[in-house]
User: Fold this.
Amino acid sequence: MQIRIAQILMVLLIALLGAVVFRPYLDRALFVSSAPRIVEPRGQLSDIERSTIDIFDRISPSVVQVAARRASNGFAESEGSSASGTGFIWDDAGHVVTNDHVVQDASGLAVRLASGEVAQAELVGVAPNYDLAVLRIRTSKALPPALSLGSSADLKVGQAAFAIGNPFGLDQSLTSGIISALKRRLPALVAARSRTSYRPTRPSTRAIRVARSSTPPDA
Assistant:
């Protein structure tokens, strides 16, 4: 009698283990449909979405990534450092406007176009009080069109603002917000970084990261 009970318990144990092992296969066979899922077509874009897409399509080809190589500090183990930021095509002569803090103390400069092409660049001039710098691309190939410029005097609080740039080297990134205030004063970088000056600014709700740069807002 005890032997028969032991045999029954052994059979039940084997059946239980089998159910645990083969359950995924049974679930797949019994409960998973073999028919492919239907992909629903995208809905109609809103007017705001179409406007944003149009802005990116028009502006992004003229936005570039600026890479600056800084010389080593004299120690043998140091190989120098690098910095990157955003710039935009200023004119057909190959001038690029970027930030002074990106190119400061650079021993070499390169510009990466939206097409992926990389070209060497030279520093033409800087305006440290406004954290601006102008480069010239050295290339014989055709460049993207220069960006259209507007007047900041026409800005209104509440206007939409868009920025295309390369945060953390992630090129062709778009963010948006609104003009939240006008005629504010914030610290600005100055020559030699020996003192602090102030300049009027136009705050925006867009996320701004220190030591990163972006194109002028397209509002």
